[in-house]
Structure formats: structure tokens, C-alpha cells
Amino acid sequence: MFLTCISALAPDKLATLCSFVSPSVYEYIADCVTYDAAILVLQDLYIKPKNEVFSRHLLATRRQHSGESLDEYLQELRRVSKDCNFKVVTATANRDEYIRDAFINGLLSSMIRQRLLESKTLDLATAFDQARALDLAQINSESYLRLRLV
Questions:
Q1: Residues spanned by the domain of 15
Q2: Percent of the chain with pLDDT over 90
Q3: What local confidence, expressed as pLDDT, does residue 5 receive?
Q4: Where does residue 131 fall: left (phi above 0), alpha (psi -120 to 50 degrees), or beta otherwise?
Q5: 74 with 139, same domain?
Q6: Does the predicted model carry a pTM greater than 0.70?
Q7: 146 falls in which pLDDT band (50, 70, 90)?
Q8: Contact 134/112 with Cβ under 8 angstroms?
């Protein structure tokens, strides 16, 4: 915003940026030769990608808190939904995303849920395949332990 305000003066954007960051931040961009390169370095440093699957889980499981007004509750749902990466999709794709969210939400195994939530994006088929593989591995591991004890 500052650069927009002084754009008529045609400032050197990189020099201006370097003048207004702290010394610890400057260390990251000191070797950049263009403003755009410096911005890319700072974005990689400070902007972390959101986990779409976890954001959808948070949205699906968010309940109104005691003492929270309806306005506050709706505002919080809107805030949480910003990280869900909603996009225009077909009815089938929309249905599959809802099924995926319900599937993850309803799992009895917190370990399987945790492993699925590690994925930043995840379609229904992949979620089911991963869950089935993890479930089978857990069952086989328990069988292996029982055989060793006998």
C-alpha cells in the first residue's frame, strides 16, 4: 500500500522494501537483485500453504460455543471456510467431497484420521484406499503381535 501511495515518485521498489524491513528479515532478501525475487523469497518464508482437508474437517466439525452469538458463529464458519479451497465443481465432484469429509469425520480410528489429514488435498478414492491400507496394516500388525505371544 505504501508503494502505491508513492508510485508517482517512481521509487526503487527493492530499495524501498529493504529500507523498511528489520535486519533479521533483510538477511533473507539481501542477495535478491529484483523486487519480485525478494517478494518470492518472503512469500516462501512467511506464507505457508493451507491444508484443504484439515480445513474442511474444521468446518464440518465446528459447533457453536456456549455464549457465542449466532452472528459470531456464522462469522467464524465463514473465516474457517476461506482455507477450504472451494471451487466450481460438478454435482458428482461436490458429492464426493462431502462424502470424503464425512468419511474422515466419522472414522473410529484417530490414527487413520490423522494420517488422512496429513494430506493437503485428497480425493475420495485416495482417502478410501489409504484408509483401507492403514486399517489392514493395523489388523495385520495386531495379528502379528498375537502370533508372537503364542
A1: 2-46
A2: 40
A3: 67
A4: alpha
A5: yes
A6: no
A7: confident
A8: yes
Using pLDDT thresholds of 50, 70 and 90, give the confidence band for residue 87: confident
Residues 70, 138, single domain; the answer is yes
Q: Note the residue count of the chain.
A: 150
43-64: burial string, b at 16+ Cβ within 10 Å, e else: eeeeeeeebbbbbbbbbeeeee
